[in-house]
Amino acid sequence: MNTDDIRAELEAELTWRSDEMRFLENQLANFSSEREKDKYRRSLIVMLYSHLEGFFKFAFTLYTDIINEQNLKCEDVTAYMAVSSLSNIFRALDDPDKKSDIFRRSLPDDTALHRFCRRVDFIKSLSDINNKSVKISDKVVDTKSNLTPVVIKKILYQLGFEHTKFDQYKGNIDKLLNVRNHIAHGDNRFRAGVEENDYNAIKNDTYSIMNEIILMITDELRRESFRRT
Where is pLDDT greater, at 53 or 73? Predict the structure, then answer.
């Protein structure tokens, strides 16, 4: 695992996205009035959101793929990472329809008993669980095409990162998402477009997040702090 190569891959991903946004922004020079430019910036907002979500998914999917390739054991990683890796086991533990083979016929409707049995099975399997290889599901990084500040926080938390890392950008990320959603849903609220100052503030925070993601992931891999201490 070469963290310099990983950082280079993340930076290359951000570079092509930045280059595309720069190309699109350069087209503003073709408009003579601020009114036309404001309308065009509305479209830029949609593209900016797409690049933020695309980069976020790329970066953290790359991170989880790297972790999965390390053949780490659950006992060697943080609780967050272990739980994210054991979703099938916890799903079975939480499944009210999963019943004990011992009492399935004699007491099929005793929910408390079957919950107890699921817990017994879980405790009995703890030693095996600790030795299971870490395999984080792609679902952990599923943004559901709606990368809100709370979705960002949720994914960071599930992977063991500092989940409040991007709270300072919440205002402009909310604006980015609101404009994108209103346009996608046919809302006329932003028909007049987006003014230059608003666009620049949103863009700056968006790029700050993407650059900080690169530092966050590479620093985490370099320290190997995903391992238990």
Answer: 53
